[in-house]
Amino acid sequence: MKKTFAALLQDERLVGDEAFEALHQGYLTAKNLLKQAKTEQATAKKAYQDSVESGGQTPIAKLAQRTHYRQSKCMYEFHALGFELAKQKLYDWLEAWQQGQG
Question: Is 21 helix (H, G, I), strand (E, B) or coil?
Fold first, then answer.
């Protein structure tokens, strides 16, 4: 399906279709949000690990770092599910469109 998906995205007959444009834009937005969330999670994890290893911070500072890391981890999972949903909606629409063309 991945090759078919890529080929369908290049199909010029889809240009200008409002439903396709909306779904494709949603897919791209979700993909970018997922990428940003992954970067944020990696940054927060590194900061938390550094604070634990250094041992020089107060318990409140360590707890703040841990909270930030856990929040970024949850947001990554949230955006991963949002991306999967956007991708599935686009796949389903493209399949229906392809069947209608054939």
Answer: helix
